[in-house]
Design a protein that fits this description.
By secondary structure, the protein is of the alpha/beta class. The protein has 12 helices and 12 strands.
Length: 337
């Protein structure tokens, strides 16, 4: 687990991990927790050291060409002793018995990589409005069924829960092979598939939850870093979302305004109403793929302008500025990104 200034959430995460110990854990094997303090300037290190059974490592100085997270977990992976490695984030909380069930699931399906998309915990209006939009688009761009299909080239993983067979991980080069990649989890999954290794990927509210962001500014910085990479057709997606916004709000306005400006017969009004209903149904069928609550899906309409703004902002940072920021560090975007 990499941890850089994670004092707000680290305690809950480590508490949920240390509570996993018990008879039969890990199919009878030994287990360990390695937490890498990546230059934290808050109480992260002290919190990690307060947990019995947690080994706290200090990340090495960040070398040129490395993203901070990849450097931290690669450093830990080389010291880990397990036959199975789990990479997870400090903002996650793991359900009781979740790791044991994940080990059984990986064995049952015979996969080299098992990755879960956690239940996302959101707080505040803007998180509730924006996150369903992004996760619904992710479910369309990276359908779990295709990711888990060995015959499909579609590959993805979520770094919040990424369990791999140790030997397979080092055979593909591990995080060292994706050192300069912002989306290290997706890049690693692609390497697994290209080497003919199997992946299982699914939404797993039964196993793990995550609260990705604690503030609006952190959320904006995080998605500015990722959106242009997750959705290469950035401007096309922004245009589609702008069209959604225009139709969802414009058609009712048209229905209200046109009768005041011109004579409309009943079938013309019915046609506009039917079109709006069709747009509404299509929109909610798509955003429901996010696995967020019905209320959050309704609020997501208000999040459309922010989503459009962040798509444009991410494109500017990647394509024009050539740099992104995250957790107090700036990273150059290289051509192969």
């Amino acid at each position: 687990m990499p941890a850089r200034n994670e004092a707000e959430c680290l305690g809950d995460c480590l508490g949920s991990l240390t509570a996993q110990a018990g008879p039969g854990f890990g199919l009878g094997s030994e287990w360990e927790i390695l937490c890498v303090d990546d230059g934290s300037m808050d109480a992260t290190r002290a919190i990690a050291k307060s947990f019995t059974g947690v080994t706290v490592l200090d990340a090495p100085l960040l070398a040129e060409g490395w993203m901070g997270k990849s450097a931290a977990v690669w450093f830990a992976a080389k010291q880990a002793r397990g036959a199975v490695l789990l990479f997870t984030d400090a903002d996650t909380v793991h359900e009781p018995g979740g790791l044991q069930r994940a080990l059984h699931e990986r064995e049952k399906h015979g996969v080299a990589m098992l990755s879960y998309s956690p239940r996302q915990v959101v707080q505040g209006f803007w998180q509730r409005a924006l996150m369903p939009l992004i996760f619904s688009e992710l479910s369309v761009a990276f359908p779990p069924k295709l990711v888990s299909d060995p015959s499909s080239p579609v590959a993805a993983a979520n770094g919040q829960f990424l369990m791999v067979e140790r030997e397979a991980y080092f055979r593909v080069g591990g995080h060292k092979a994706v050192a300069e990649t912002v989306l290290e989890d997706v890049a690693l999954a692609r390497r697994f598939k290209r080497k003919g290794m199997t992946i299982r990927f699914r939404y797993a509210a039964d196993a793990v939850s995550a609260r990705m962001y604690r503030s609006l500014s952190a959320m904006m910085e995080g998605w500015t870093k990722n959106l242009a990479l997750l959705f290469p057709q950035t401007f096309l997606l922004a245009l589609m979302k702008a069209l959604d916004l225009g139709l969802l709000l414009g058609l009712p306005l048209l229905l209200w305004a046109l009768p005041k400006l011109m004579l409309m017969v009943w079938w013309q009004k019915a046609l506009i109403a039917a079109l709006w209903l069709r747009v509404l149904v299509r929109y909610f069928m798509r955003v429901a793929k996010s696995h967020f609550s019905a209320l959050d899906c309704v609020l997501s309409i208000a999040g459309l302008p922010l989503f459009i703004l962040l798509l444009a902002r991410s494109w500017v940072h990647h394509k024009l500025r050539g740099r992104v920021s995250w957790k107090g560090r700036e990273y150059p975007m290289r051509a192969k990104e």
